[in-house]
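Hey all, quick one. A colleague (J.T.) asked me to put the flavin-adenine dinucleotide job into the tracker so the inputs and the structure tokens live in one place instead of scattered across chat threads. No bug as far as I know, just bookkeeping. Sequence used:
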Amino acid sequence: MSYRDHDRELGMGREISRRDFLNGVGIAVGTSLLAANSPWLHAFGIPQSPFAPEQDPGYYPPSKTGMRGSHDGSWEVAHELRDSRGNTNTKGWAEPVDDNESYDLIIVGGGISGLAAAHLYRKLAGRQPRILILDNHDDFGGHAKRNEFQAGKRLLLGYGGTQSIEAPGNYSKQAIGLLRELEIDVQRFHKYYDQKLFSSMHLCEAVFFDKETFGTDRLVPQKGLHYFGLDFTLDNVSQIPIAESARKDLIRLQHTSVDYMPDLTPEQKRAKLVKTSYKDFLLQYVKVHPDVVKVFQTSTHDLFAVGIDAVSARDCSREGFPGFKGMRLPKSHEENAELDEPYIFHFPDGNASIARMLVRSLVPGAVPGHTMEDIVTARVNYARLDDASSPVRIRLNSTAVKVKHAGDPASAKEVEVTYVRGGQARRVRGANCILACYNMVIPYLCPEMPGPQKEALAYGVKLPYVYTNVQISNWKAFQKLGISAIYAPGAYFTNITLDFPVSMGDYHFPGSPDESCLLHLLRAPCEPGLDCKDQYRAGRYELVSTKFETFERNVRDQLGRALSAGGFDPARDIQAITVNRWPHGYAYEYNELFEPLDRPASERPCVLGRQPFGRIKIANSDADGHAYTNTAIDQGYRAAREIMAA
Ligand SMILES: Cc1cc2nc3c(=O)[nH]c(=O)nc-3n(C[C@H](O)[C@H](O)[C@H](O)COP(=O)(O)OP(=O)(O)OC[C@H]3O[C@@H](n4cnc5c(N)ncnc54)[C@H](O)[C@@H]3O)c2cc1C
């Protein structure tokens, strides 16, 4: 079949919801409608700039499909800043237009950390400080991104990034306290998350073996519902398209209890496993056939964004991968402290609901409602976010390019922040500034920072991810095949899952297979064999240079092949695609396989990098070296406290 015929069969030419109009035509129209001195703009308190797409009544980023996440229009200015090595003079940004605005606090970054910092600073200050939050995206929330879809009259909600409130029992007093202040009662998710739906329909997980990697396309079900640690029945193992001796090794790996390092003490074993990749553990200690490695290669993508060649065997043992039953390993402090909580604390749009509730509490009138239930279907009024009458203003589509003390950092009374919005450099002033953006951008924003601090901030490399939401007309193919999720070790997307079955407020999960539903597809682009940071860099490069069309073709091809036996037709059944591309995804977490082990916690680069610099403080999850919502909140709290302490 020719390439073109194959594309037609996949439905590449079909009309689906995938075009990102607001980034192109829509913004141009919106801007021209709101000419420079429109009285309407004055009424909203932004008389200076003719660029105000948020004021367009049609401005509603969550409903955009196509390329989202770090969408086009959000990253170009920051990359120009990087390419000029922080020299704003060469960019025509040296003479910014003065907004004549001054604030108690300016926050760069409207993700959960920045929003939480604003919330907590207001609380600590005990008054109504004036706060400005700048973000380069067209929506707030950072990684906590809401994707909306329309199936006829029905609203379908998906998460474009931050998925769930993971293990709230481990949240700090401040982080859980903030959720409570927002009226989020995590216990209610026990009622909202239908934990029995898929098992009552006898749906389990399956593994899709693709012909490019395994010689043939085959879908093999597993025993039940698993996260990690594949678990095949003997019968299912026989269906896996790998060498016969590899099948035997897989059974041995899963079902026997062997101590593969019998001569070492538990502590020595731990130390050895920390410096051994899981791939090497399988090959050198368990001595499995190389085909077994192929089966597991991408099973760590979901958590680490790299394969088992770049994740330590110790990390894999902690996550429940097979091979460690007989090893009698000592438990770490974290493992001892871990609570056994189900993975159910999920709003239908992920933690975007937390960001939306923060905005509701910060900007009066921007988000209707009062409860954790009504936030789910509340429609944000984006025109209210940057309202001069509000004590907190959120200015989207605005990239900070320079953050500088007005004078000597030790004694200055103000910080000047230059940002680019609609191609125009503008300047605002604040008594304090919190940088809740990515760590690695800070050295470019604040060239005046001490060298070692800049070096520490530039240390980590964020993990690249693609979270793709696909709206399908029904999920009968899943029911017919008896599956709710697919792990695909060799394919473009390593995980395909039916959306979480959560119903709350006026939002109802499409519980019948006849209904339109969302699928979630995960890709972690990387380059096996390199050290993890280089893999992340390679993945990031891949992401920014991949067109939507390539993602779409892979979505259609993979779903068509994996689900064909269930009657799925990609040309007929796919209704919309939203690709959330995150070249700068998870915060860099220290990878024990590649990091020095003897570094005291106080000397970790994230700790050295987050030190206050005059009136500039640093929040964001990078500052903790952990990619979680609670760490983003904790760091926002710390930065707010540092201002109070000063
Ligand atoms: C795909 C994905 C899934 C995740 N899933 C989970 C999960 O299930 N549970 C969980 O607890 N955590 C999860 N995380 C981690 C969690 O999302 C983050 O730890 C947290 O949301 C980070 O918040 P933040 O505010 O520190 O950073 P961000 O969300 O990245 O926000 C920072 C904001 O600053 C902006 N910015 C950067 N530079 C500038 C500039 N110069 N000017 C203006 N703005 C700028 C950024 O574009 C961004 O919008 C996930 C992360 C990703 C990427």
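Adding what we noticed when we looked at it: Residues 78, 108-114, 134-137, 142-144, 161-164, 166, 399-400, 436-438, 441, 465, 467, 582, 585-587, 620-621, 627-629, 632 surround flavin-adenine dinucleotide (CB under 6 Å). DSSP finds 26 helices and 17 strands in the chain.
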